[in-house]
Design a protein that fits this description.
The N and C termini lie far apart (43 Å). This protein is an alpha/beta fold. It has a six-stranded antiparallel beta sheet. The N terminus is likely disordered.
Length: 428
């Protein structure tokens, strides 16, 4: 995926996805009413890599730093696979998004027949594998690309019912303005999201944002604030349309001027994504197509960030499968907000928190009436002790990110969080 810095990325997952559908069939469109539901196993919160086959196909076949190393690093979804990787993905019990070897596909310039043929060829490459959950179509399209993508998405729904038509969108720092310079092709970022939903008829929303690193670990407050605004805008549009959504964040140093991956900034990106209610987390990148500090260096060796990412992914696997079936009912910020237009407490269940550093608070409801809260320390410099107050009182318990066990809060009615760390709490 290419943003206006260098490149971009995407993937993650959910249980059920729904949307109305239009079909492309050899030069014409045909309405088919309700789209087929695309599904993954219950509790499957996708943790995906984002590496294009143009640089990953050979490396993913490696016994040293290929698909097996993704599994070891805590990933459950391979992005992106080619047919030669499918046997290994299946053997390891993982899932994958299948992508064409060449990138990008010029959907905007193709006829209806050409679009259908291109999708058919990609689907046929993966149709015999149970590991394939979707097909890669496009990265960071602008509004002028939506008409062609609508037909490509419809073709995936026709040819591969139950599979995902994977498209990743621009972040909110893509360019606006005149048609000859605008990446989005719309007047505002929210209009871009709304037009994507209404015109393309997607099964989910995915987007990328690397502003945590571009803000120099939040030293630049304006850039850092845009990360949280993007998070809340995508959450709002996705929830209004009943769509799951995923976020792609940075696990490599995308430009030499920004901060590299660290345990704290990786934790913060992961936990804020979950706290906002996403159903999947994608890391850009796992391999290095030229970036420094990638988990797998250009030489093929494991970099220091590999162990950082493994630690974070293992926590996401435990916590993600617990919140994946739940509904996000609120996302709030306490203390000095990263941006002024973000919602503050009280929420539906949390009346307030006491903490010396800013926090993010995400609220969740289960189908059986269970209630959970995720609290994230937004500081990338300081550990923080917080105390939480909930409506109705009662004992709040913490969930272990190691094994999912539930126990009393370590401090009785308070808890310490290291820089960027989050915690899932069960409410009475």
């Amino acid at each position: 995926m290419f943003d206006f810095y260098m490149k971009s990325n995407c993937l993650a997952a959910w249980r059920v996805i729904f949307v109305g559908c239009v079909f492309v069939l050899m030069g014409g469109e045909r309405a088919y009413g309700e789209a087929e539901k695309a599904s993954l196993p219950d509790g499957y919160f996708s943790v995906m890599s984002w590496d294009l086959p143009m640089w990953s196909s050979k490396d993913f076949a490696s016994s040293d730093h290929g698909v097996g190393s993704l599994k070891d690093c805590g990933f459950n979804t391979v992005g992106f696979a080619r047919p030669e990787h499918l046997a290994e993905v299946e053997k390891l019990g993982m899932k994958c998004i299948l992508a064409p070897q060449a990138f990008p596909t010029a959907w905007r310039k193709m006829s209806d027949e050409e679009i259908f043929k291109a999708v058919k060829g990609l689907v046929e490459e993966g149709e015999k594998s149970s590991a394939v959950v979707g097909y890669f179509l496009a990265d960071e399209p602008g509004e002028p690309d939506f008409a062609g993508l609508r037909k490509a998405v419809a073709a995936v729904k026709k040819l591969a019912p139950g599979k995902l038509a994977y498209i990743n969108l621009f972040p909110n720092y893509a360019t606006l303005g005149a048609a000859d310079i605008s990446q989005l092709g719309t007047a505002t970022y929210e209009e871009y999201l709304e037009k994507y939903v209404s015109e393309v008829k997607p099964q989910f929303i995915s987007y990328d944002n690397y502003q945590v690193q571009h803000s120099l670990d939040q030293a630049n407050g304006g850039i850092a604030g845009s990360y949280y605004q993007n998070l809340m805008t995508v959450r709002k549009v996705a929830m209004e349309h009943g769509l799951p959504w995923w976020q792609i964040v940075a696990s490599s140093q995308i430009t030499p001027q920004i901060t590299p991956p660290s345990p704290a900034n990786l934790l913060l990106q992961a936990y804020t994504t979950m706290a906002a209610g996403a159903k999947g987390l994608t890391w850009y990148t796992y391999l290095s197509p030229g970036y420094l500090y990638a988990p797998i260096e250009k030489s093929g060796a494991h970099g220091v960030s590999w162990s950082y990412l493994k630690m974070v992914n293992e926590q996401v696997e435990v916590i993600g499968k617990m919140i994946e079936p739940m509904k996000s009912v609120g996302a709030y910020f306490s203390g000095a907000k990263p941006a002024g237009d973000l919602a503050g407490l009280p929420g539906k269940y949390v009346t307030g928190v006491e903490c010396a550093t800013p926090l993010m608070v995400g609220e969740f409801e289960g189908s059986g009436g269970e209630k959970c809260v995720m609290v994230v320390n937004l500081s990338l410099k300081e550990s923080a002790k917080f105390k939480i107050a909930v409506k109705g009182g009662g004992e709040v318990k913490q969930v272990s990110p190691v094994d999912g066990s539930v126990g009393a809060m370590e401090g009785g009615d308070s808890l310490w969080l290291t820089a960027g760390q989050g915690v899932l709490l069960k409410l009475p």
